[in-house]
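Changelog-linked ticket: pyridoxal-5'-phosphate example.
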Amino acid sequence: MTTPSVASDAGALLGVYARVGPLFVAGEGSELIAEDGARYLDFVAGIAVNALGYNNPIFREAVTRALDTGLVHVSNLYRTEPGERLAAELTKRFAGQVFFCNSGAEANEGAFKFARKWSGKTDIVAFSGSFHGRLFASLAATDRPDYRRPFEPLLAGVQIIPLGDEEAATRAITRERTAAVIIEPVQGEGGVRPVANEFLMFLRKLCDETGAALIFDEVQCGLGRTGTMFAAEQTGVVPDMYTLAKPLGGGLPMGAVLLNDTIAAALAPGDHATTFGGGPFVASVALDVVSAIADPDFLADVRAKGEWLGGALTALASRRARVREARGRGLMWGLELNEIAAPIVAAARERHLLVLTAGPTVIRIVPPLTVTREELERGVAILDEVLA
Ligand code: PLP
């Protein structure tokens, strides 16, 4: 096999990503392997996607078994088994129905449409620090002025209000206009911020009173990342819809909207669709990924490792003056710095640890959920070194 020239091939890709570092050619467990054979401990995991790490036998067997059926894509014109089984698996934990799509942004766009159809209203309320995707409605609900500005006007009727502000929420969420309220129970891109339970409870009550759909965007914090299947399980609040993506297909593109029965009953054939959504190949693999994550022992292991990681990062934060605070849940953590985070991320990469930013001053740590305690210790030691 000849290795293509990196420079010439990279030039053909649209320049919307600032790609850095080595050319990765393989992965094993929690490590990425570069062209020159160097190994990088990966606490990015494809941005919270690769829950089972690289080259996991569960994933490999799932892919092989799915291919053996000969069915990759059939179309939603017909019934296939894997999507039905995956939907049944997901609704064991959230009573309702499932719409499959291909990404997190698409899941949120779908959820907004479902909320409009069900409520007969139009407006959407989102929160400061939010990230819900890059399409026209999901971007309208995303609090990143630099991402939004070049593409305005975005979807009308979307308000972003301060996170945690009950008065602002009471003013913004109305019986007349609000179709949906969307929130990440643990904000990801906005700086790894767990939202206070009391605020989620307040939103639940407000949505019930005004007839708005409460959407929990668990694209990043869901599916085991925080140590429970849904992050919301730790809050005592049940939303009307969940949106999921990232780890769902084990690295294959897949998103989903979980709708409660009331909202699902408002949707009819033709209301929404996508060609690839929930195809038999991706759904079959996702079923094995979801089953692996849902195993109580697997989730208990995530919680135990998360507890250790949280303790280690909190200790690091008190030891290193450059770190203001450690925040997180399970295996989703952020280190808020007193400075710009990108140079620290680069310095960690030089030492073969991959972490990423979440906003300008936060280092985000989202390793594979299969990461070992020894790997966590190694990663924290490298971070400690670069922050010294
Ligand atoms: N919602 C959340 C909470 C996310 O973190 C992301 C991506 O980072 C998205 C939605 C968008 O997902 P995608 O990039 O698959 O469209």
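Closing comment: Example verified and attached. The longest strand covers residues 323-329. Residues 82 and 284 are 5 Å apart (CA to CA).
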